[in-house]
User: What shape does this take?
Amino acid sequence: MAKSIKLENIRKSFGAVAVLKDINLEFPEREFITLVGPSGCGKTTLLRILAGLETASGGTVIQGDRSVTDLPPGKRDVAMVFQSYALYPHMDVARNIGYGLKVRGTPKEETQRRVREVAQVLEIEHLLDRKPKQLSGGQRQRVALGRAMVRKPALFLMDEPLSNLDAKLRVTMRGELKRFHQRLETTTVYVTHDQLEAMTMSDKIAVMDRGEVQQFATPAEVYNRPANVFVAGFIGSPPMNFLRGASLLAGELRLKGGVEEPVPIARSTLAGIQSRDVVLGVRPQDIEVHANSQPHSLQAEISLIQLLGSEKLLECHYGQGDQLTAQVKADSALEAGQKVWISFDAQKLHLFDPVSGRNLLAGE
Assistant: This one.
């Protein structure tokens, strides 16, 4: 039975190094939650605390309606899938999947039935008599998932389970993991450093940096209303551009160098924001590149072009050596070294505080 999870003021230190700093999160039951962030941000440590493999320096872990803070892993009704599959090489697939049930004393007939059910869900029924060395990476990953699923836990914990797979297989397994979750309806907490995995699989994302949660929201909200510069730069591929030295004056947005006229921005966007210096954030997809001069445009020069199939990424320099990236259609007739004029989608601009990094348009 799926259960909600609540983390209250979770802290973790290794000596004088604070790895987690007052983490407060609540994961509704049956949702797919992803912890995402750069290496060293604390996401795996937080997952291990949820599993009971690591002891928090402070705070409370609540599963359903009870505290499990001091319970060992075996008492928490959780199953964990690691980056390493850790399959028993001398056992076939069926015994690998059913081993956890066997050591818990589950009757043989019940174990065999549940192993067959899980194998059917994972579409590995034809592999049950094979040894791990006879399996591909994706098949081994399914067996590791099956070993966790067969226990029917209240909580699935997954620590970068796709990182050992090649790029094409990762894409396939992302979709399969999401389908498995929808079918099983088990609360899942998934750790990754890959923001694309987080965006495509999650009901909610907790973006972490240096032991703190920077934002906890749906993928759409994290992408469209990032809480701060860190989230805006981490979520989205290619990443958001940040134009520093911008300012708001009497309701107009102006950039340093290269643009004499104010940059158009939706008036509703500026409601309640006083005149001040800002950092302008704009995603490459929200930039238009023109071969000829346009009103309210920024003059720049293309220094590098990267073809991505249906799109091109243009690296452009403007002003006194500042740089931004624009994304255009692959058939755009643009070349490196060409002078261009750049304009922004007035409805999709972001304004950040230059000191704190807070998104001035995201509210409190």
